[in-house]
Design goal:
GO terms for molecular function: lipopolysaccharide transmembrane transporter activity. With 181 residues, this protein is mainly β. It is built from 1 helix and 12 strands.
């Protein structure tokens, strides 16, 4: 009889221990979607047939599990001519690489300069499709070409910013001495 009481006591104790689990909120078991890797002072050089084509520089790069990259402290991209001469620079306050679309996006104070043609662009957002060698935006842009300023919404250009098409032109004017982007 003593063994039966002992067996029942053990059975009740084990049963109560197993039934006293804390319930888990499914919302608290979310998967981490933050950066999986951080790099400081990055400098990436793209070349083709031993010729410099472009450079990407940023103070910080965050890498995510889906392949996307974020440049929270800004990004600078330089484009070179086929003979290796620096042709165009692009800078943005923040940058992103969208892996699925193979697309770079700059936002904030975006500035593009074609050093050879003396052209400048200013906008709040720009996209660079590296595969198609094209930059574009649907935001408001200001373009300075020599002594003339053009304003409009939307722009498409080759990635050297040598040839561009300004969409929905709002106005243009000649710069006064000392003025410019």
């Amino acid at each position: 009889m003593n063994r039966i009481i002992h067996f029942i006591f053990v059975l009740i104790t084990v049963g109560s221990l197993l039934s006293c689990r804390e319930s888990i909120d499914p919302e608290s078991a979310l998967i981490y979607d933050g950066p999986i890797n951080t790099a400081i002072d990055i400098h990436i050089i793209h070349s083709d047939s031993a010729t410099h084509r472009s450079e990407i520089m940023a103070p910080q790069q965050l890498e995510f599990a889906n392949g996307n990259l974020e440049f929270p402290d800004g990004i600078e991209i330089k484009f070179y001519t086929s003979d290796g001469q620096l042709e165009t620079t692009m800078r943005a306050d923040r940058g992103y690489f969208l892996s699925e679309q193979n697309l770079y996006r700059g936002e904030g104070n975006v500035q593009i300069k074609n050093l050879i043609k003396d052209q400048r662009l200013q906008s709040e957002e720009i996209f660079w499709n590296q595969a198609e060698k094209k930059i574009y935006t649907d935001k408001f842009v200001t373009i300075q070409e020599r002594q003339t300023i053009f304003n409009g919404t939307g722009m498409e250009a080759d990635d050297s910013f040598s040839n561009y098409q300004l969409k929905q032109v709002r106005d243009s004017r000649t710069l006064l001495p000392g003025e410019g982007l």
